[in-house]
């Protein structure tokens, strides 16, 4: 079974700062996907970024980037130039490559990120 | 855009009632999922389905059942609601081509 650990229950930074959210996972699989999801107060879960384990290049989506360290089983999310709208719960999630996406994702417990004006 | 809808945003039921939570997706996805979200516990998988009439247990299936009679619709059933089933319930779907899951807005269920 896979486990996902987010060690920071809550973080608070000033607007425009850069913030890094940590995520580690444990698996015996070699092919898998990793995701960061954002859940704002509206409760709608939104995909922020995805990373395929077989890709060495770190994924980037505008102000969001990841630091994927496969050997260390680490998958951190960096948010640059943080904005008030980034305030949300952030969940790290693991998905198995085998099964064609039909298996559920394993989620961490989440990090509540607060962007202060 | 993928759209996943859930029948209710808020629901209040009494202990012992039978509860139906409905989820519909409009992107012809093969796979659908039900999660439960509790503070400090993240999301936990209850059941999932990879085809019509097919279902698989997730990590916490006890006290729940599901139904998938049509590809676009996946229902979560609480046969006899209990107070420890008070929670946020999230439905999601995906296709085998993309892996990432698309979520509905959630149903906050309160059992009194």
Commentary on this structure:
The complex is a heterodimer of chains A (117) and B (112). Chain A has a single domain (3-116), classed as Immunoglobulins (Immunoglobulin-like), CATH 2.60.40. In chain A, 0% of the residues lie in helices and 51% in strands. Chain A is built from no helices and 12 strands. In chain A, the strands form 3 sheets. In chain A, strands 2, 5, 6, 10, 11 and 12 form a 6-stranded mixed beta sheet that branches. A 4-stranded antiparallel beta sheet of chain A has the order 3-9-8-7, with no helix packed on it. A two-stranded antiparallel sheet of chain A has the order 1-4. Chain B is an all-beta fold and 112 residues long. Chain B has a single domain (4-103), classed as Immunoglobulin-like (Sandwich). Helices cover 0% and strands 53% of the residues of chain B. Chain B has no helices and 11 strands. Chain B has strands at 4-6, 10-13, 19-25, 31-38, 42-49, 56-57, 65-70, 73-78, 87-94, 102-103, 107-111. The model of chain B has no long low-confidence stretch (mean pLDDT 94). Chain A binds chain B through residues 4, 9, 33, 35, 37, 42-45, 47, 50, 91, 93, 95, 97, 100-110, and chain B through 30-31, 33, 35, 40-45, 48, 50, 58-59, 88, 90, 92, 94-103, 105-106.
N- to C-terminal distance of chain A: 41 Å
Helix content of chain B: under 10%
DSSP summary, beta strand count of chain B: 11
Overall geometric form of chain A = globular
């Amino acid at each position: 079974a896979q486990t996902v650990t987010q060690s920071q229950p809550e973080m608070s930074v000033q607007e425009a700062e850069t913030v890094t959210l940590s995520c580690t996972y444990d698996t015996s699989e070699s092919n898998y996907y990793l995701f960061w999801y954002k859940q704002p107060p509206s409760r709608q879960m939104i995909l922020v970024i995805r990373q395929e384990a077989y890709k060495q290049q770190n994924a980037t989506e505008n102000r969001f980037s990841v630091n994927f360290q496969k050997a260390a089983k680490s998958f951190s999310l960096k948010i640059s130039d943080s904005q008030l709208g980034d305030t949300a719960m952030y969940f790290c999630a693991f998905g198995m490559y085998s099964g064609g996406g039909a298996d559920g994702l394993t989620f961490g417990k989440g990090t509540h990120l607060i962007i202060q004006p | 855009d993928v759209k996943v809808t859930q029948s209710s945003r808020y629901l209040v039921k009494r202990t012992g009632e039978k509860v139906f939570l409905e989820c519909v997706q409009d992107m012809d996805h093969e796979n659908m999922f039900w999660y439960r979200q509790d503070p400090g516990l993240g999301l936990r998988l209850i059941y999932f389905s990879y085809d019509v009439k097919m279902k698989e247990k997730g990590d916490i299936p006890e006290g729940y059942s599901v139904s998938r009679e049509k590809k676009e619709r996946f229902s979560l059933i609480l046969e006899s609601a209990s107070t420890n089933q008070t929670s946020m319930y999230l439905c999601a779907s995906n296709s085998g081509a993309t892996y990432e899951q698309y979520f509905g807005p959630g149903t906050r269920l309160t059992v009194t």
